[in-house]
Amino acid sequence: MPGCLLDTLAGRRTERRPVWLMRQAGRYLPEYRALRAEKGGFLELVYDSEAAAEVTVQPIDRFGFDGAILFSDILIVPYALGQDLWFEAGEGPRLAPPLVDGAWNGLEQAFQRFDAIYRTVALVKDRLGPETTLLGFAGSPWTVATYMIAGQGSKDHGKARTLAYRDPQAFASLIGAIEAASIEYLIGQIDAGAEAVQLFDSWAGSLSPTQFEQWVIAPNARIAAAIHAARPGIPVIGFPKGAGAKLPAYARETGVDALGVDETQDPAWIHGQLPTDMPVQGNLDPMLLLAGGPALDESVARILAAFADRPHVFNLGHGIDKETPIAHVEHLLKLVRG
Prior knowledge:
Layout: H1 4-9, H2 30-39, H3 42-46, H4 49-63, E1 67-69, H5 76-81, E2 84-88, E3 92-96, H6 115-127, E4 133-139, H7 141-150, H8 158-166, H9 168-192, E5 196-201, H10 209-230, E6 236-240, H11 247-254, E7 258-260, H12 267-273, E8 280-284, H13 286-291, H14 294-306, E9 312-316, H15 326-337
Helix pairs in contact: 4-6, 6-9, 7-9, 8-9, 9-10, 10-11
């Protein structure tokens, strides 16, 4: 019997508001930090399927969230497309060679790099009860492309935006490669046991309206359509962080089943802009969860009230901060679940 999260993503309002948190498997948990210290680097942990499965279920064991999000990284797709991937301590991911001209064709694809991730999904699925929904994910093509082109994260994503203007054909070719790999990757996660998938477009907010249509809406629409055709009934959550006023167009045009919203959006405005039966996920500010206190209580109440008349998954507007106190998460769950 499916849990309340899966019911909500299917468009049904449930008696209990489902809740999970982006990056819930990670550094704010002492049990994660202990396992990370034992296993070494981040990528080594991701590719140790048994350890990655343990990390995925740690927050379920501790908090009883309604969803378990796969412990992995959005840069597994460029790694499978042939770029080298590593993580610099304190600085974040690195990809080589940087695709400053968008020329991905010289890379040697290595889709076998997905296999360990599929094994993690299968191991987690075996450990979860039917009340907990297993969520797979991938980065959306635009966000992944920004890393592939710059070779690392950037503040303004200028190299990717410039290439998209200067050579749209080369950029479209790269987006197409990411798109095709992401579809295969997500279907593989579903076949291994994922019951829903999320598309993370963390840098969608850096684009102009025209580029947003080209490089966010269109690729995500093709991915959602491919997932729906290949694996009917599997919900796709779209999360275009920073979309702002472009959020309703994303909801209408991508065909995603549920919409993740960030903390910059007014919940009442979102509710008024979207179809009443469309599931929404979000959108507590992660810094409020870090801070705690009366402001947290007030914001949680405001979000719950704004989305009371539609299917709603309570979540953060982005990933949980690594300094977040465990007690604040426990308090949040009491607020959401009454």
